[in-house]
Amino acid sequence: METELKAVSRLVVSKKRMSVDEICEALGLSRRQVLYRLEKINQILSSHKVPPVVVGHVLVVDPVTREALLAACQGHARLHEYEFTPAQRQLVLYLMLFEGRDRLILQDFMEALDVSRNTVLADLKQLRQSLEAADIQLVSDRRRGYQLRGEETALRSRLIREVMQEITAIADVQLFDLFLENSGAATFPETEALCLRLAKEHGIRFAADRMTEFIYMYLFLRQRIQNTGIHGDVHWPLPDCPEKRFVQGLLKETGSDGFMVSEEVSWLTSWILGISFGSVYEDTEDCLLIADITGRIMSRFEQLTGIRAPCQEDMFTRLYSHIRPAYYRLLFGIPILNPLTEKVKQEYPDLYQIVARAVKPACSLAGREFPEDEIAYLTMHFAVLYEGMHPAAATSRSRALILCRNGVGSSAVLHAVLTELFPQLAFETADSLDLGPGRMPPDIIFAARSLTRVPDTDIPVVTVSPVMDEQEKLLVLREVNSILGQEAGTPDLDMVLSAVRRCCTIQNEEELRRMLQGLFTPRKPPAPVPAQGLLGMMDPSLIAVSVSCATWQEAVRRAYQPLALREAITEEYIQHTIATMEIAGPYVVIAPHVALLHTEARHGARQPALSLTVFETPVVFSHPENDPVKYAFALSVPQGTPSHLTAMAGLLRLLEDPGFYAECDTQDRERIWASVCGHLD
Predict the structure, then answer these.
(1) CATH code of the domain occupying 534-679
(2) Please, what is the Cα angle at 464 between 462 and 470, to 5 degrees?
């Protein structure tokens, strides 16, 4: 093969998804020149009866073709032919160590990365320091070379997180593909095809990126066990289930069942359980347990916020799909990486705090605390149904497709936000552009990942983040309206000034305002109604002290009395609360000695308000853990009221302060109100 054809061939097989444009940029050739060379390569492949390279937006290379091109290029591509960051170099070092090659020395690392001895020593030093934080040791001696020491679970968890971070950070996975090629391991495409077939056979649904992470980790693990014979320390015998049959089929068809023993079947099965969607409609052995956890979280959220999902069944189904894998991730210590965690905490700070408290009763069932990344995913689920973001009925002829590979929660949030931004569009959600027979193509595509993951199409594509701040929403609004030929959605003056304040120091804001004033139309959109904080829902007249009651029914009525006197609620609201408690039990008792009285807004909530009643003698509500009730909050949130989650998050912070209860026990209204004001807003 000619030198110029070898250069193109080497690039074609250098990573899983290579485009013609990338080859043009790498070799300094025109598109016509690259297409000509690809045609010549396909002629050579045809003469050897090898499938051709399929040329499209992304080149498609059959595994047989890949091997033929590698042979024509006289061997595998080398890692050092690509420029990696210091963090990626450390990842390569860890992969080499994890693989368990015999007697790794400095020269091996230097040759793999084509860097100096000092560079490798510096990278190893940084790697050793980061590993120590995970209870992993990097050791070396003259006889055995460099090795990793530590619990096998810790070694694997470290690599899983590294794989997740690398896949999240880059659009392709060339580092992993090249590493596997240099190791002579099985390739990703053939393993992916096998996993997709097995998943279909056993009825297992994955988030696309989770499957990618699993496949690479499986291939690395397979190499490690072949080299070292070291097995995992998972000894729980999992019952027969589709996920276990998936793993057994994978091991058998990849020739790994002879050396990957029962512990590996259990470990890999636990991981498959931790990355596949749960379905409330499947009759699995764990369905009652997962349903119990899901129900507890939903009930706790309702107790803490006083609001109920508009459609309980939809909310339960959505949460169940996430809770099932989350439960197994917690149970088996399988890490999860949520790249949107910090953004969720910034955009939904109050909701995040409430969800973090809502999951606590479920933690005991899983045996571990929910990490921040899991809480952020659950917050995205609740954001859909509890922040007024519900899909509107689509009547427009314009159709939109949302491509989101991150999971159910991300898809739901993105669907809700885009529906709110573009009520004129009819939205569908999918993880690929495979429309199926008889389905009309969309007018516009919203892609939640890099464009390199979107198939070749003439349909306009808009790249969006699953969680958007206000500035990102404005940019998307302008781009989409431009595509649809509609009004561009010009920002108003205050929005521009707000953006400038975030990034710059304004020396003369009034002068800047006057200069910009002429750039905007006089019509301004109505100002958004601010979130209702705790001090906006309470005042001293809504605090009652030294109240005596004989029964919990009387306590409910007395606690509601400040709201009733203000006409914030009706008599029906009070009666419905009592009737519900008689059937469902003391759902209003949310913490030791604390009740938050509420019911559905449609039964008579008239004004947003929150009252506090301190009983002279604690009242028994028949709660198994939190009786008797000494402090009763009563909540009214009418339908259509702006989110009161800010107030509820503030209330929960207040209830976590022992000093607040000490002030309540004084039965002094002024001191109680001063305590509220001193802690909040």
Answers:
(1) 3.40.930.10
(2) 120
